[in-house]
Amino acid sequence: AGGVSLRRCSTRVNLEDVNRPVIDRIIRVDHAGEYGANRIYAGQMAVLGRSSVGPVIQQMWNQEKDHLKKFNELMVAYRVRPTVLLPFWNVAGFVLGAGSALLGKKGAMACTVAVEESISDHYNSQIRTLMEEDPEKYKELLQVIKQFRDDEREHHDIGLEHDAEA
């Protein structure tokens, strides 16, 4: 995923130095969001995977898989429990992806644009929060979130290039 190393989070995470409520919330929410995004793309691929837009969706999905993998690692490193809503995200994400894809390429891309715009805004809010907390202390997490935000913006723009507004 871009320039961010997807290696395991450094073992130097000192859990006593972090603002636990803030970090728990950020990592839990981002993990759930990336999980949901994976399920949306899985639903879109189930419907449009063999169409002309299939490779585009697959490319975005591959990045989302990398994002989810990294948040799985961060959950372990920071000892954050996942949301209890994962079973809901599993079904709802797939239904949203497949449902939008049943409307055709434009419907799938409109869904992508809407979701990715929301996620980018959410990541920006988290970046501001961590910068206010202590940018040096949260340097690695900030790097991850900034890179993933940029990836989501790219997905947003890809959706626009593929007739989302139509």
From TrEMBL:
Keywords: Iron, Membrane, Metal-binding, Monooxygenase, Oxidoreductase, Ubiquinone biosynthesis. GO terms for biological process: determination of adult lifespan; regulation of gene expression; regulation of reactive oxygen species metabolic process; ubiquinone biosynthetic process. This is COQ7 protein. It comes from the Eukaryota. It comes from Stercorarius parasiticus. Pathway: Cofactor biosynthesis; ubiquinone biosynthesis. SUPFAM superfamilies: Ferritin-like. GO terms for molecular function: 3-demethoxyubiquinol 3-hydroxylase activity; metal ion binding. One of its GO terms (cellular component) is nucleus. Pfam families: COQ7 (PF03232).
